[in-house]
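Figure 3 (text version): structure tokens given as input.
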């Protein structure tokens, strides 16, 4: 059996890799009770064993979800992700923003110019204009927030 330092090191590595199960105590599957090979803190291992159990007909989606401490929709999504992406499909997506912010300084200047010509126009009306002009879909609230930030300091144009 590994010592406490090795267990802490593994937990740190899982956390850095984004595969640390935040709720290992919810995993009640008997395989994970032994503690030797199966580790409920390893999210990728938990997801794989859950999918394997469902695929081998050992449990329904609802039963597997309960045994592995997830919701039924999450279990279904993992089975589908495995079917389409293999083991890679079970790796959690990175948390946080999904990409660069969509609203550019050029878009804010477009809004500023539009408002200078037509008066105070709300975000709901501006979003379709921005989509037509720049080909970018925005949410009105996101535009409102950007405009609020822009009033504090208008970003410089990109080089």
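Below: residues designed for each position.
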């Amino acid at each position: 059996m590994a010592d406490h330092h090795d267990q802490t090191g593994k937990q740190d590595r899982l956390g850095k890799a984004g595969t640390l199960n935040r709720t290992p105590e919810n995993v009640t599957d008997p395989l994970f009770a032994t503690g030797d090979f199966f580790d409920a803190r390893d999210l990728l291992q938990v997801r794989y064993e859950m999918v394997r159990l469902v695929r081998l007909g050992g449990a329904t989606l609802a039963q597997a979800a309960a045994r592995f401490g997830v919701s039924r929709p999450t279990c279904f999504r993992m089975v589908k992700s495995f079917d389409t992406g293999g083991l890679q499909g079970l790796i959690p997506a990175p948390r946080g923003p999904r990409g660069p912010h969509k609203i550019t300084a050029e878009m804010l200047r477009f809004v500023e110019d539009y408002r200078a010509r037509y008066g105070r126009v709300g975000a709901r009306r501006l979003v379709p204009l921005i989509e037509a002009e720049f080909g970018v879909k925005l949410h009105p609230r996101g535009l409102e927030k950007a405009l609020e930030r822009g009033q504090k300091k208008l970003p410089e144009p990109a080089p």
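Residues 8-90 form one domain.
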